[in-house]
Amino acid sequence: MQTRSSPVSRELELDKVTPPGLVGLRRRLVELDRVVVAFSGGADSAFLAKVATDELGADKVLCVTAVSPSLAPEELADVRALVREWSLRHSEVETDELANPAYAANDGSRCAHCKGALLDVVGPLAESEGAVVVLGVNTDDLGDHRPGQQVASERGAVFPLVDSGFSKAEIRRASKELGLRTWDKPAAACLASRVPYGTPVTAPTLRSVALAESGLRALGFRELRVRHYGDLARIELPTHDLADAISRREEIVAAVRSAGYLYVTLDLEGFRSGNLNAALRREAQS
């Protein structure tokens, strides 16, 4: 068991912590007392899982990872590595969102169905722990199309990073100050986010995306997306990587074609996280 400090000494310790947002996050976690962290291994959920475990102790924090075809194999491997490195109490649960026709149809509410599937399995675990489900949502997420957040909130999940005012940049800065290797980890949304709305999400499609992205990472590209358009793959890389990509086009084409794509294109606008949501915004304005 972890030795707990007195309330007075804890208050003094909190006031010394930088950045200041960390004080609010730790106090919020103390209020919640016991939590189940939806742990994908990304910068946000990793930061939340580590701070929660350090603050409350592993006996009060269960980190849960949903394993499904929409989780990239590299992400699952990194989740397991972080669990070992940080001594997290952890559980993996399988979700089968593809069995839900509404999810597979891939309309603008896909994320809501996905979050519902997550809470179907995480909720009972939290109940057995006498805990609250917490998600690594940050303040930047509130301005995008995120129907899953509404579902999570309606089902009792809590967003401690939002409550304590953390933006994505602030999470990365605080993670760096705490010495967490995830501080600069590229954003890695679920693989289904690579499929344009209206195109059905299937296991083979997700597998092709995963293989193509794995092939590009093997070539040294860290931040990327492979958008799926049937036989065509549209690659998004940061603009500073575009020249390198063009000079290595034969390697890139070979890597992406080995994942099953016939046509390989490079998006000259560069990497934009969540850019497929633009189609929804255009549709709403028309």
Describe the fold and architecture.
By secondary structure, this protein is an alpha/beta fold. The protein is built from 13 helices and seven strands. The chain has helices spanning 7-16, 21-32, 43-56, 73-86, 101-105, 110-129, 147-154, 160-163, 168-177, 203-218, 242-247, 249-257, 277-285, and strands at residues 35-38, 61-67, 90-94, 132-134, 225-229, 232-236, 263-266. Strands 3-2-1-4 form a four-stranded parallel β-sheet, with helices on both faces. It starts with 6 loop residues before the first helix and ends with a helix.
Poorly predicted ranges = 1-17
Count of helices? 13
* Mean residue pLDDT: 89
Task: Note the gap between the termini.
Answer: 59 Å
Strand content: 5-15%
Structural class: alpha/beta
Share of helix, binned: 40-55%
Sheet with most strands:
4 strands, parallel
- Strand order, largest beta sheet: 3-2-1-4
Rg calculated over all Cα atoms: 20 Å
Overall morphology: globular
Count of extended strands = 7
* Helix and strand sequence: HHEHEHEHHEHHHHEEHHEH
Kindly list the characteristics that best describe this protein.
13 helices, four-stranded parallel β-sheet, disordered N terminus, 7 strands, single chain
Helix and strand layout, with pairings?
Elements: H1 7-16, H2 21-32, E1 35-38, H3 43-56, E2 61-67, H4 73-86, E3 90-94, H5 101-105, H6 110-129, E4 132-134, H7 147-154, H8 160-163, H9 168-177, H10 203-218, E5 225-229, E6 232-236, H11 242-247, H12 249-257, E7 263-266, H13 277-285
Parallel strand pairs: 1-2, 1-4, 2-3, 6-7
Antiparallel strand pairs: 5-6
